[in-house]
Amino acid sequence: MNTTAIDPTLSGTYVVDPTHSRFGFVARHAMVTKVRGSFPEFEATGFLNTDDPTSSTAEVTLQVASVDTGNEQRDGHLRTNDFFDAPNHPQITFRSTSVEDRGDNEYRLNGDLTIKGVTKPISVDLEYTGTALDPYGNRRIGLEGTATLNRRDFGVNFQAALETGGVLVSDKINLEFDISAIQQKPE
């Protein structure tokens, strides 16, 4: 296996910067177009072990009420029990269980995703996109990721048939992650 060498000084705890990161999703609507959305309110942390990337970890908590597709009426519907049921399930969570080093700055992050009280395993393909020192002296790492899930596996079952055939909302949901994480200074 091709092992990617990452600067050993990058080992440590990271907090994802919410102003420069995105946890998003894409669903096909009416079988003809895609609707994109995100959860702008979240907390995400991780531990990067550069000596053994497979022992790295990550945790993410998304605030369901923050769902944003650019359309307030649709966002309101997504908050109901037809979709995410924000009043009864205010958070979506992910906790890693393992990491696979796939070489060439690519990793597979395996973990447990919980939506509407249903927990299922999921794999996220991540690419390490680089490191930067920001103007405030913070060391940042960048990651981009994708995953695919079936929303019905998590009890998100709303559907409407279309007169022309097909359905209003796809079962297949693509997840998109753009992450800027700040290395925490040792205490």
UniProtKB/TrEMBL annotation:
Residues 13-182 form the Lipid/polyisoprenoid-binding YceI-like domain. Pfam families: YceI. InterPro entries: Lipid/polyisoprenoid-bd_YceI, TTHA0802/YceI-like_sf. SUPFAM superfamilies: YceI-like. It comes from the Bacteria. Belongs to the UPF0312 family. This is YceI family protein.
